[in-house]
Write a structure and sequence with these properties.
The protein is of the alpha/beta class. Helix content is 38%, strand content 18%. The strands form three sheets. A seven-stranded mixed β-sheet has the order 7-6-5-8-11-14-15, with helices on both faces. It has a four-stranded antiparallel β-sheet with strand order 1-4-3-2, with helices on one face. Strands 12-9-10-13 form a four-stranded mixed β-sheet, with helices on one face.
Length: 375
């Protein structure tokens, strides 16, 4: 079950975290900032069970690869603490959205902690506490990874663009709303802003759900960044005018060969960047790298409901922009091949050029004992 309540929108900086665990008198809950209501309202959803969390994930009330991993871990802990069927909850959560690999990763982390505790003779409450501790650990790890990605990304920009004064183009939303910290690609832009090297952040609207317009602009405004919003189809004119120094995006899954699944519209930016000799940089934690997926063709791309395209602003509110009965093609993600990616920035360093061997070597340094077992 999910309830909701409002928080005021005021001041500078996010007043409401994207996700938090809260202990209430009637029992623990997972509290989510409903990202569908931004930027005009900060409404929190209070999830008391796994079905409510799954509904929030599928409806994009909570979204973004790293944060979905954290949400998945907390969801498993929620099921355990409240005495629900933990194995069933894990199965449901792990498949709530097929493309984002972090979701299943977070679920498996918390499930492994629960199983280990239970197998060692712990009672239900103790095993649930172990799952919750693992979720909190993952939450903190994600925040730490965000800070390291920002540092590595800024160092890469300084290397690729020694003149400074960066004009960066980004797509979708990759800030604190998708992370336990400051985000992925947006965190790099934030680091550039703090050292006074961000000349302009170009923000793609990101149709059809407008995550760039609603969320990235929201975060950029609160951070005091110099930013400009553009419709997705205006990006080509920016490149041709020489107004883009680098493209920074996040990722929902990176295959073993370096193919990148990200919000639909990312691949066209990669093509434009290659034609105009502009660096195309992907920023993502190593938990987003899926060495078990061989290449881009093996990534399952989520197909979203058609009404997100045929109605505005992409909801069931009944504001049609197309004739009744119009069929819509609405993939949530597209795949960018590794040859179009200049570099992948992770918390453990940078892979450039992007190769299968380079990714495997990077991941090997961070993936011992990560609970990557099957559910």
């Amino acid at each position: 079950m999910a309830d909701q309540y409002a928080a005021s929108v005021s001041g500078t900086g996010s007043s409401v975290p994207a996700l938090r665990w809260e202990e209430l008198p009637e029992g623990p809950v997972l509290v989510l900032l409903d990202q569908r209501r931004l930027p005009t309202e900060e409404i929190e959803l209070v999830c008391t069970d796994v079905p409510a969390l799954i509904e929030a994930i599928r409806a994009l009330a909570v979204r973004g690869a790293p944060l979905l991993g954290v949400a998945g871990a907390y969801g498993l802990a929620l099921a355990a603490v409240r005495g629900f069927d933990v194995e069933e909850a894990a199965e449901m959560l792990a498949h709530a959205r097929p493309t984002a690999v972090n979701l299943g990763y977070g679920v498996r982390r918390a499930l492994a902690a629960y199983r280990t505790a239970a197998g060692s003779g712990a009672d239900g409450l103790q095993a649930a506490a172990a799952a919750l501790a693992e979720a909190r650990a993952l939450h903190q790890e994600d925040a730490d990874a965000s800070a390291r990605m920002a540092a590595h990304g800024l160092e890469l920009l300084e290397e690729l663009l020694p003149g400074g004064g960066y004009r960066l183009l980004t797509h979708c939303n990759t800030g604190a709303l998708v992370s336990g910290g400051e985000g992925t690609a947006f965190a790099v832009a934030g680091a550039a802003h703090r050292v006074r090297e961000l000349r302009r952040l170009w923000v793609d609207e990101t149709r059809p759900l407008l995550q760039g317009a609603r969320l990235t602009a929201y975060e950029a405004a609160r951070a005091g960044m110099p930013y400009t919003l553009l419709s997705d189809n205006a990006a080509g004119s920016l490149f041709s005018a020489g107004e883009v120094d680098a493209v920074l995006i996040g990722a929902d899954r990176v295959a073993a060969d370096g193919s990148v699944a990200n919000k639909v519209g990312s691949y066209p930016l990669a093509v434009l960047a290659r034609y105009h000799h502009v660096p195309f940089i992907v920023v993502a934690p190593t938990t987003t790298v899926d060495l078990g997926t061989s290449d881009g063709a093996a990534i399952e791309v989520e197909q979203r409901p058609g009404y997100e395209v045929t109605e505005f602003p992409g909801s069931v509110s009944g504001n049609p922009v197309a004739p009744l009965g119009t069929q819509a093609y609405n993939p949530a993600f597209d795949i960018t091949p590794p040859e179009l990616v200049t570099a992948i920035v992770t918390e453990n360093g940078v892979v450039s050029p992007v190769t299968e061997a380079g990714l495997a070597e990077l991941c090997a340094r961070s993936r011992s004992g990560n609970g990557m077992m099957s559910i």
